[in-house]
């Protein structure tokens, strides 16, 4: 039982790290009053780009940097086009998602056969003589970076001029314009920064866990992140906790299998998607208002 708990906790960090980065990226984007459903495309494209760059230069950290840059640039396309009058954020996000996935699958076809290059994990279980415990406590090295970004975003939204401008643009574009703020510029930069943060999540997928590159790597985590941000009520610290919840749910099946419980493996693997469905049903119910949501999100048509 003790090993099972450790396996779920360790798995929550490994599986939840991509969720954390993508949800933080969507959080900053939605804080500015824009929705980016294209983050699934950003995630897949940056995962492929990270793996490609890491293999070209034999450096996983250059792969992480490349994934962040590719994610930011691809999200900038979404931000630029959505800045055009009468362009729908949601429709454009779906188009970008399909484009990003298509490019990643086409360019990444030859990469499927390559040997995986990966970042070194943080082994927090070195104190134990049990190989299973040490394996369960191998932590994604990008997770501390995610925590740092979480704390910086949480502090920045409350205590910095730029953070307050993002919140003002997301809550009332008219008030922002009255203050001389360029709503288009703020939303474009927020979308691009959100894509860069999500790009680190893509690097986590291909360079940490599960590692390598294949066409089913993301399993819809970019889309799940939208529900996760709603669940977190657009607060970075809550995004961290929500990512761990989703990560723990996603690691439940492998943890049970490692403990010798093989029944219902695929059913337990579906838990994150079941949680997403529950969140969407609850938050979309007419009697439940989306408390904490940026007001401008309700104006998207």
Concise summary:
The chain is built from 13 helices and two strands. By secondary structure, the chain is an all-alpha fold.
Tell me about this structure.
α1 (2-31) crosses α10. The chain starts with a helix and ends in an 18-residue tail after the last helix. The radius of gyration is 19 Å and the shape is globular. The chain is built from 13 helices and two strands. The protein is mainly alpha-helical. It has one domain: ABC transporter involved in vitamin B12 uptake, BtuC (Orthogonal Bundle). It has helices spanning 2-31, 39-57, 60-82, 89-107, 131-136, 143-159, 161-171, 173-178, 183-207, 221-231, 236-258, 265-269, 271-283; strands spanning 122-123, 138-139.
Name the CATH architecture.
Orthogonal Bundle
Backbone CA Rg: 19 Å
Spatial gap, N to C terminus: 50 Å
CATH topology: ABC transporter involved in vitamin B12 uptake, BtuC
The CATH first-level class comes to Mainly Alpha
Strand order of the largest sheet: 1-2
- Topology order in helix (H) and strand (E) letters: HHHHEHEHHHHHHHH
- Major sheet details: 2 strands, antiparallel
Q: What percentage of the residues does DSSP assign to strands (E)?
A: under 5%
Relevant terms:
single chain, 301 residues, mainly alpha, 2 strands, globular
Q: What order do the helices and strands come in, and which of them pair?
A:
Layout: H1 2-31, H2 39-57, H3 60-82, H4 89-107, E1 122-123, H5 131-136, E2 138-139, H6 143-159, H7 161-171, H8 173-178, H9 183-207, H10 221-231, H11 236-258, H12 265-269, H13 271-283
Antiparallel strand pairs: 1-2
Helix pairs in contact: 1-6, 1-9, 1-10, 1-11, 2-3, 2-4, 2-9, 2-10, 3-4, 3-9, 6-7, 6-11, 10-13
